[in-house]
Amino acid sequence: MGAKKVIVIGAGIVGLSTAYFLRKQGADVTVIDNTDGSNNCSNGNAGYISPSHLVPLASPGIISQGIKWMLNAESPFYIKPRLNRDLIKWGLLFKRSATVSKVDAAAKVLYQLTVQSQTLYEKIMADENIEAGYKKPGLLMICKTESTLKDEIELVTMAKSFGLDAEVLTREETEEMEPNIQYNMAGSVYFGCDAWMTPNVFMQKFKEILIQLGVNFQYNTQLEKIIHKGFSIEKLVTNKGEFTADEYVLAAGSWSPILMKQLKIDIPLQAGKGYSFTLPSPVAMPKLPSILVEGRVATTPMMHGLRIAGTMEIAGTQLTINERRVQGIIKSVKEFMPQFEEQDFSQIETWAGLRPCTPDGLPYIGRAKKYKNLLIGTGHAMLGFTLGPITGQMLSHEIMGEKPAIVSPLLEVERFA
After folding, report:
1. Would 32 disulfide with which of 221, 376, 403, 413, CB 3.0-4.6 Å?
2. In CATH, which of 3.80.10.10, 3.50.50.60, 3.30.2350.10, 3.30.720.120 is domain 5-411?
């Protein structure tokens, strides 16, 4: 019997990580993607590898806050009202997931996933000699008001209960830690457990390693039809011909539910659009990445400049850029970082990407129940880049008959069916 043949659908960080671990275990891997591979969500994000992100998107308080925000087109969280069955179902499940006990259960799983994924990144970079500006420790959550700082203390308590390095800093302590930026703030929370890198550089180098390892890439390949026979996938029909394998992995991010509808598999998921832009020579370059809490904006010092990212816009899978939302990000940066003025943003080129958001804020990782040779890895919301390696390792263990490192019913693919 020859090597196990696997097709991975999607060339984002989850797809590449899955291909990497499978290839390391001797599988014959083909990755197909409908783009040229340069512009998925894994390239334009804030580059955080964040164990501190323990609270899922669906958390108590986000509903009432979200309703206020929905009425403001520049707000950080916006759901475009539309009569769409999938969106309504997702919204109801989201509301049901936003309870204290569900959030606590989700946080335990997110802790395991994020910490193990960070370790895997460090191992991949050491083993494969990848230099992508990876730095640790540090992430600051900058709070403009005392009341927000008080709210964040809960997150610090939760992080510490898991043994993560987290502390509340006064304004003066923050300025000592971050001398380059004069933040308009009451204080901050410092997460020493977090790391960051330049994601597009990592993705490019990781892809080169995979090609050297013998992974076959098929770009600009549109998946037209998934042919199945009984309880297994038989082949994929694309604009570049047919592809067959022993096992199939769907890691197509926000497009996954559309593809799964062909197979009558229901994975509730909405695309959360985010924007980013990079200032090549900013007026001031922070030492540490920061989240401007009230503005829900992320800033990251990267190899080629300062990346600024933000917004969560649930409005379908279009990648059109809503200028009012970009203005909302710029407004937040100027409020929090007064060194930056309007003219600093005159030359920006805005990037948009779609984060696949599940109703409970936890990803779908594992086998589909209905088809014995189909696995799914999607729904990572804002943690896609953070969780790529652990997801890939879990899927590859499942395919190669090993016990995945993390097993939880909260990650099951058809938990909402």
Report:
1. 221
2. 3.50.50.60
Q: pLDDT tens for residues 291-321?
A: 999 999 999 999 999 999 998 888 888 889 9
> Measured between alpha carbons, how far is 81 from 204 in angstroms, rounded to an integer?
37
Q: Are 23 and 213 in contact (CB under 8 A)?
A: yes
What is the 8-class DSSP label of residue 255? G
> How far apart are alpha carbons 124 and 384 in whole angstroms?
17
Residue type, 412: E
pLDDT in tens, 239-287: 999 999 999 999 999 999 999 999 999 999 999 999 999 999 999 999 9
296 to 213, 309, 316: CA distances (angstroms): 39, 9, 21
Measured distance CA(10)–CA(356) in Å, rounded: 13
Eight-class DSSP state of 304: T
Residue 271 pairs in a beta bridge with: 356
As given in the structure block, the two tokens for residue 244 are 């067959």
User: pTM, whole model, 2 decimals?
Assistant: 0.96
Q: Is the dihedral of CA 83, 89, 95, 98 positive or negative?
A: negative
Distance CA 228, CA 237 (A): 11
Strand 223-229 to 232-238 pairing: antiparallel
Phi/psi class of residue 320: alpha, beta or left (left: φ > 0; alpha: ψ in -120 to 50)? beta
Question: Which neighbouring-strand residues pair with 7?
Answer: 30, 248
Instruction: Provide the residue type at 82 as one letter.
Output: R
